[in-house]
Amino acid sequence: MARHELYNDDGTTDRETCPRCGDAFLADHGDRTHCGRCGYTEWN
């Protein structure tokens, strides 16, 4: 997915950002969200 596809028409996004990195989005894997940049993981 290209980065421009993550944003709505008004420039906002529904994705969570990483609390550790700040500028990276968290990927949703169903049972967890994960930051590909630093490895931060939140288990559901």
From TrEMBL:
Listed InterPro entries: Ribosomal_eS31 (IPR002906), Ribosomal_eS31_arc (IPR022845), Ribosomal_zn-bd (IPR011332)
Pfam family, one: Ribosomal_S27
Ranges where the Small ribosomal subunit protein eS31 domain occurs: 3-41
Binding note for cofactor: Binds 1 zinc ion per subunit.
A GO term for molecular function: structural constituent of ribosome
Record-stated family: Belongs to the eukaryotic ribosomal protein eS31 family.
Keywords of this entry: Metal-binding, Ribonucleoprotein, Ribosomal protein, Zinc, Zinc-finger
Subunit architecture: Part of the 30S ribosomal subunit.
Highest taxon of the lineage: Archaea
Gene Ontology CC, one term: ribosome
Listed cofactors: Zn(2+)
SUPFAM superfamilies documented for this protein: Zn-binding ribosomal proteins
Protein name, as recorded: Small ribosomal subunit protein eS31
Residues noted as binding Zn(2+) in the record, renumbered to the chain: 18, 21, 35, 38
Zinc finger (C4-type): 18-38
Record field: transmembrane: none
